[in-house]
Every structure is written in structure tokens, then in C-alpha cells.
Amino acid sequence: MHISYFSLIVISLLLGLGTQAYIRMTYNRWSKVPLGNGMSGRQMSRQMLDEAGLQDVPIQNKGGADLSDYYDPRSNALYLSGGSDSGASVASAAVACHEAGHAVQHARGYMPARLRMTLVPIVNFGEQAWMIVLLLGIVMNVTGLINLGIFLFAFVVLFEIVTLPVEFDASRRATAYIKSVPGVSATEAAGARQALVAAALTYVAAALSSILQLLYLLGQRRD
């Protein structure tokens, strides 16, 4: 039993470290390649938003580390790191336009994105509570609490699974847009796609690790 769970931890750790190393390597490679049209990540994402009719969506420079960029549906705004905001590289354009893709999803009512937003309150609670509830159930030998802990964790896993099509679609929108912009070469567009595929592996690895953990917990519950 302990060896099996230890193996699960090792697999999750290797998945996380492997994907992070690949993401960093790919991002660093394309962050050194300037975009042919000379536009920065902010300019590319602004243009993408404007052409989608989203002139009211602001873009904020949040500073911070690379790849910490995000779109907040609550404020309906893009928050770009310094590199993505002012950088004029293939990687900067890819990341900034990916976040713009999330804004387009929100505006168009993209169903997986709407489902993901619906799950947020439950997941925020579940992430904080599932382990505590599960451990209490084990210590007190209360099957109901154990099942509740697993149920809460299942919502976390569902959230991570639903996140996958949301991220893939945002990357698809970004790649298609970058490819259509005059002055961007086929090589640069392919590089943007490669950078976004690498970034998406983070979500794939997280979802896979969580699925394995959920299957383990379900298997232990049957014992």
C-alpha cells in the first residue's frame, strides 16, 4: 500500500519536473527569436482583441515572472508579465495572444470555459477541505467522511479535466491569429504553436497526476 502511494508521488513529481523543464527550454528558445513584424506581446494581444470586437478588454502589466500571465474573467482584463507585455519575441506574442484567446472565449460564451467558471467556488472549497475531511474520516474511522473527502477531490480532478479544452482552445485561437498576422513567418507561427503546446503540458501533467491519485483513493476505499 505504502509502496504504491510512494510510486504515485514519484510519478507525479517526475511528470511535473519533466514538463516544467520542457516548458522552460521551449520558452527560452522562442523568447530569443524576434517576431518578424516587430510587435510586442501587448500590441499583438491588443490587436487580436480589437479585431474580435473586444476593445473594452484592458491589458495590464502585472510584472512578475515569465509565464505568470493570466486572464481574469471577473475583471474581464488581461494581466501580462513584463516579458510578455513589452517583449517582441515569438514567445511573448504566443503567451499574450493565448490570454487574449481566453477573453474571446469569455465573450463568445465558450461552454467549457463557462463550466470551468461554474466549478470555481466548489473547487476553491474542495482544494482546501478534501484532505482534512479525508484524514478525519481515516482517524475517526468514519466511512462517510472518507467518501466526502474523495468526493470533494473528485471535483478538483473534474476542474482540471475541464481546464484542458479551455487551454487547448485558447492556444488554438492564439496560433491561428498569429499565423494570420502580416509579417509573421511560417517558422515564427510554428514556434508560437510549439511554445503554447509546451505550456499546455503543465495542465496535462497536473490532470494526469490528479486522475491517478483519485483512482488510488477509490481503490483504497474499496479495500
Report on this structure.
The chain has 223 residues and is mostly helical. The protein has one domain. 76% of the residues lie in helices and 4% in strands. It has seven helices and three strands. It has a three-stranded mixed β-sheet with strand order 1-3-2. Helix 4 crosses helix 7. The model has no long low-confidence stretch (mean pLDDT 93).
Termini, distance in Å?
A: 11 Å
Number of beta-strand segments: 3
- How many independent structural domains? 1
Radius of gyration: 20 Å
Count, helices: 7
Helix and strand content put the structural class at mainly alpha
Uncertain parts: none
Output the strand order for the largest sheet: 1-3-2
What is shown here, in short?
This protein is mostly helical.
Strand-helix topology:
Elements: H1 2-31, H2 41-51, E1 59-61, E2 70-72, E3 77-80, H3 82-86, H4 90-108, H5 111-140, H6 143-180, H7 186-222
Parallel strand pairs: 1-3
Antiparallel strand pairs: 2-3
Helix pairs in contact: 1-7, 2-4, 4-6, 4-7, 5-6, 6-7
What are the defining features of this structure?
three-stranded mixed β-sheet, mainly alpha, elongated, 223 residues, single chain
